Amino acid sequence: MKSLTEQVRAALAGEILAGKYAPGDRLPPEREYAEHTGTSRVTVRRAYDQLEAAGIIVRRRPHGTCVADTFRAHTGPLESVGLITTLPHEFSGRFVAAVSRCCRELDALLVLGIPEPDTGPQQLEIAVRMATRGVKDLIVWGADRNFDFRVFERLRILGVNLVFFDQVLPGDFADYVGLDNRAAIRALLAKAKADGAERMIFVNYSDLDVDTNAERQQAFEACLAETGCRGEVRLLSRGASAAECRLFAAELAAAGAEAPSAVIGVNAPVLQMLFRHPVAGLGLYCVDHVPQLAELGAVGLRQPIGAMAEAAVRALQEQRKKGGKWRAGVRRFAGELVEP
Amino acid sequence: MKSLTEQVRAALAGEILAGKYAPGDRLPPEREYAEHTGTSRVTVRRAYDQLEAAGIIVRRRPHGTCVADTFRAHTGPLESVGLITTLPHEFSGRFVAAVSRCCRELDALLVLGIPEPDTGPQQLEIAVRMATRGVKDLIVWGADRNFDFRVFERLRILGVNLVFFDQVLPGDFADYVGLDNRAAIRALLAKAKADGAERMIFVNYSDLDVDTNAERQQAFEACLAETGCRGEVRLLSRGASAAECRLFAAELAAAGAEAPSAVIGVNAPVLQMLFRHPVAGLGLYCVDHVPQLAELGAVGLRQPIGAMAEAAVRALQEQRKKGGKWRAGVRRFAGELVEP
Fold first, then answer.
1. Does A253 touch chain B (CB under 8 A)?
2. DSSP three-state, residue A178
3. Quick one: pLDDT at residue B196?
4. Which of A21-25, A61-65, A147-151 has the lowest mean pLDDT?
5. CB proximity B277 to A under 8 Å
6. Shortest CB distance from B100 goes to which of A94, A112, A276?
7. C-alpha to C-alpha distance for B191 and B293, rounded to whole angstroms
8. Cα dist. A301→A60, B85, B121, B279 in Å?
9. Do A219 and A181 touch, CB atoms closer than 8 A?
10. Does the keyword Transcription regulation apply (chains A, B) (predicted)?
11. Residue A174's pLDDT band (boundaries 50, 70, 90)?
């Protein structure tokens, strides 16, 4: 049987997790919360004391008691790493394997969560389940941007260490590890130019709003302006039929017939959807690398997935080590051009 | 501080786990074990009593005290499923995703372990680490047969529920879930015959001694005899160079030039190593299915990976439910032919 203080503490933590009180929000005065919970002011004060000691709430004169909005990392042992990611694509599979390798070295268990569908709310649900089962060090591989990722802040407040992979976050509650997309696009454009391409075509999905793709497209547009290359962005639906893909590919091939052109795919699947064979006059380039690209004669960009996984796990360890002094950081990796 | 009884109990459990005493082995008499551990006979008797109550040892007159060799399943809650498997190949990735789906439905955590290299001893090491951290329901995707898998028996005795996937076991300490390889080979041979093939060539690895491959090859040889087809087994090293693969593929193509022939690949990677394009006179068939096979014009066999993952998790639940009444079972699944 939990003591009254524990019950009040758990109830308030639950309300914070559920989003009733956001980071920085003011909490009810002790007297009011005692009425709300049918307990005494002494009980509420004790619960507040404990939550303050845990870094979940702060007492600020003259503002009263607020939910914390500075993110102290939890400093407990790294016994398990929670990894929230999709599968089974080869790139994600290799990432999972690399994180598993790091966990073995640290003698930590790897707890895997696969959101289906891969949306922010599903990721959050898995994260909450892991956190309540004691998995308090999480690596989250970003999902669709149509989700307020700041709700992950609440997990941070409740003592969860967070690293986001391949997902640029709007807040400072998680470390970021990912590809240096700007450098990647710059390297591919330079290579395309050196290969004789006169016109650059960036192909992105029309219906996949993830940060990585958005960053790559922005970098493409910026690099065009910088280098004075001719170019354009073309969008294709992820759900395009085979006939639509053929038509789209034929249009791109027509561009190559006018002048040597380069198609830069936002990732490997988009090029694989479009092309089965090399096309004369059309160089293929990809911000990604899978063995099948070689058959298309495409230039790929190999992401150092092992080093990126290590950086993510290391970031969790740093969070634990720094505790109250932790500040969110960004760690970007350069890729390596791979010729077919 | 642990009591003396607990210390003795833990020491003996450790010795069983380390293999000093195997299932069915006789343990030292109480007096002798007391001397060995520098404790009293009363302490050892209490430790033996507790281990007997936990089903780890049995007292048999007139044989004395032995390590258990009947496998009672542990009946605790299914809070987490440990999955020991390789990644990142697409087939294993899909299996992991399917197990993850089952875990979410049961509100269990999925703890993933990837042995590197993928050998029995590495698998066992991961299994022991999981078990000692409280993950006591394990699905193990088999590895090389050059390992005495019976050492997993000891884990069973210490209260771990086990399901082996895609790995025929020599013992009765785990449930088995996998493909019905005999039916799969029979279906592929019948299809090849119906397609007009007169000569059947089974291609296997020369240096990968896993049960699945061995079963498939045996089934091929048995089916040849049954159906009166002409045929042969050809072996290729997993580490073959591109030049060796081309030479090997040319030899197979020559067989097709003599008479319409069918090449049955033990799995998809072996065919993908050999062929990039369809070959006249040579039908390609595969005990496996990946999308890339369509480009080879190969007939694949789709394994019902979702149903197999469900069966594995369900087997763990059954073990928990049956407890002392559990008996190892075999669950084999039929595949479905997929034309290119």
1. no
2. strand
3. 94
4. A147-151
5. no
6. A112
7. 16
8. 50, 28, 36, 32
9. yes
10. yes
11. very high
Residue A235, beta-bridge partner list: A204
How many residues are present in chain B? 340
CA distance B24 to chain A (A): 32
pLDDT of residue B35: 93
The answer on pLDDT for A119 being more than 90 is: no
pLDDT value for A112 = 97
Record: contact A94-B87, CB cut-off 8 A: yes
Task: Give CA–CA dist B216/B211, Å, rounded.
Answer: 8
| Cα A163 from Cα A142, distance rounded (Å) | 10
Kindly state the percentage of chain A with pLDDT values over 90: 54
- Do the chains contact at B109 and A111, CB–CB below 8 Å? yes
**Amino acid letter, residue A311:** A
CA B317/CA B27 separation, integer angstroms: 32
Q: In this predicted model, what pLDDT tens digit does every residue of A193-230 receive, in sequence order? A: 999 999 999 999 998 877 888 899 999 999 999 888 89
Q: What is the mean pLDDT of chain A?
A: 89
Q: What ipTM was predicted for this assembly?
A: 0.81
Q: End-to-end CA distance of chain A, in Å?
A: 65
pLDDT at A42 over 70: yes
Q: Which architecture does CATH list for A181-302?
A: 3-Layer(aba) Sandwich (3.40)
Residue B92 forms contact with A (CB below 8 Å): yes
Q: What is the model's pLDDT at position A323?
A: 87
| End-to-end alpha carbon distance in chain B | 65
- Residue B131's closest chain A neighbor by CA? A109
Question: How far is CA B133 from each of CA A40, A89, A107, A110, B127, rounded to the nearest angstrom?
Answer: 40, 30, 11, 12, 10
Whether residue B91 contacts residue B290, with contact meaning beta carbons closer than 8 Å, is answered with yes
**Parallel/antiparallel/unpaired status of strands B261-265 and B199-205:** parallel
Q: Please identify which residue in the block is written with the tokens 């003591």.
A: A3
* Orientation angle between helical segments B41-53 and B30-37, nearest 10 degrees: 110
Structure confidence at residue A295 (pLDDT): 82
Class of the CATH domain delimited by A4-67: mainly alpha
Q: Mention the CATH class of domain A80-178+306-332.
A: alpha beta
A80-178+306-332 and A4-67 share a CATH fold = no
Give residues with Cβ within 8 angstroms of B155, minimum separation 6.
B17, B124, B127, B128, B131, B138, B162
User: What pLDDT does A1 receive?
Assistant: 60
Q: What are the residue ranges spanned by the domains of chain A?
A: 4-67, 80-178+306-332, 181-302
What residues in chain B have per-residue pLDDT under 50? Answer: none
Whether B88 contacts chain A with CB within 8 A: yes
Q: Is the pLDDT of residue A159 over 90?
A: no
**Would you state the pLDDT for residue B170?**
63
- Which of A252-256, A333-337, B111-115, B310-314 shows the lowest mean pLDDT across its residues? A252-256
Interface contact flag, B130 A114, Cβ < 8 Å:
no
**Cα(A300)–Cα(A197) distance, integer angstroms:** 16
Nearest to A231 by CA among A203, A201, A258: A201
**The CATH number, out of the four listed (3.40.50.2300, 3.40.50.300, 3.40.50.920, 1.10.1740.10), of the domain defined by the range B80-173+306-333:** 3.40.50.2300
